[in-house]
Design a protein that fits this description.
By secondary structure, the chain is an alpha/beta fold. The chain is built from 12 helices and 9 strands. The protein folds into 2 domains: about 140 residues, Rossmann fold; about 150 residues, Rossmann fold. It binds phosphoric acid mono(formamide)ester and norvaline.
Length: about 300
């Protein structure tokens, strides 16, 4: 059984297969409307259960569309509506129940341990829809988007991240190892990636480049990624953290310090880390990035359901 929990645990070959399937499916859908089903209805009769312990717009809707376009169905739950979320039922029992009713389970959670527990007790594939240490479906989709726009393998590009060391960055770091691309990170010293992540990169004979000077970080960049400085449920002094990131705001001047054809990507939702001028400007591809989530989720589902050709 194939789970989709952390990019670092999935082979590059499988990640590549998912991306190329998404590319094929996307081009075949050009004339189809939103809810029309892909030829062959590959997930006919299958049900994905999605559960959210945190807010979501894109992940929730893109998985809904993804399974529908493959001929299956979905049920979306908030954990606080279940016995599990109320504290009355264990993860083990909930995982067994979900395995009885559904064919796949997508979880957005504030605990990596919970995902592991679900995986250990369920007999259906588990997908990580965002956890404290990972946002794998987002980042795989972003690799797809970068290659779609730049029309070359990501390994030939300089990727830059300006922002907090959070779940999205951790997955981007994992992607930099899996897909062999250069990753430069710009953030205040206090918010650099943790030792565990850096050791994992070293262990895999790769390097990430960390700068506390934002201009140095973006030099030579083909793509600049960012994310909200304050993540969902971030339990920090928000005012203080925003202040600490003030010098790292992505504005037009900073974009001009990167390569001339550098693009801007952001997983959304956004905060003050980027100016409106950049976010809504010509170099920004954030709407295409959000839409591509649907296409990659489909191929992730096929991978998990053992139907990826
Ligand atoms: N980018 C992303 O995961 O968005 P949502 O939080 O809206 O799902
Ligand atoms: N880093 C953000 C991503 C939101 C999609 C968070 O965890 O809130």
């Amino acid at each position: 059984m194939k789970h989709f929990i952390h990019l670092k645990d999935i082979s590059t070959k499988d990640l590549r297969k998912i991306i190329s399937d998404a590319k094929k499916r996307k081009s075949l859908r050009k004339k189809l409307s939103t809810l029309e089903v892909d030829k062959g209805s590959p997930l006919k009769g299958k049900m994905l259960i999605q559960m959210f312990e945190k807010a979501s717009s894109r992940t929730r809707i893109s998985f809904y569309l993804a399974i529908k376009q493959l001929g299956g169905g979905t049920l979306t739950l908030r954990s606080n509506e279940l016995h599990f979320g109320q504290g009355g039922e264990s993860i083990a029992d909930t995982a067994k129940i979900l395995s009885t009713y559904g064919d796949g389970f997508m979880l957005r959670t504030d605990s990596d341990k919970k995902i592991e527990n679900f995986r250990d007790h369920s007999t259906i594939p588990i997908i990580n829809g965002l956890s404290p240490s990972s946002h794998p479906t987002q980042v795989l989709s972003d690799v797809f988007t970068v290659e779609e726009i730049k029309k070359k393998p990501i390994s030939k590009l300089n990727i830059c991240w300006i922002g907090d060391s959070n779940n999205v960055l951790d997955s981007l770091i994992a992607a930099s190892v899996k897909f062999s691309f250069k990753l430069s990170i710009g953030c205040p010293k206090k918010f650099e990636p943790g030792k565990k992540v850096r050791d994992w990169v070293k262990h895999n004979n790769r390097k990430i480049f960390i700068y506390n000077d934002v201009k140095k970080a973006v030099r030579g960049a083909d793509v600049i990624f960012s994310d909200k400085v304050i993540s969902l449920n971030d339990k920090v002094n928000k005012k203080k953290k925003i202040e600490q990131f003030k010098r790292f705001k992505i504005d037009k001047k900073l974009m001009n310090s990167a390569k001339k054809d550098c693009i801007f990507l952001h997983c959304l939702p956004r905060g003050d880390e980027v100016s409106d001028e950049v976010f809504l400007g010509k170099k920004s591809h954030v709407w295409q990035q959000a839409l591509n989530r649907v296409h990659i989720q489909k191929s992730i589902l096929l991978y998990c359901f053992g139907k990826l050709r």
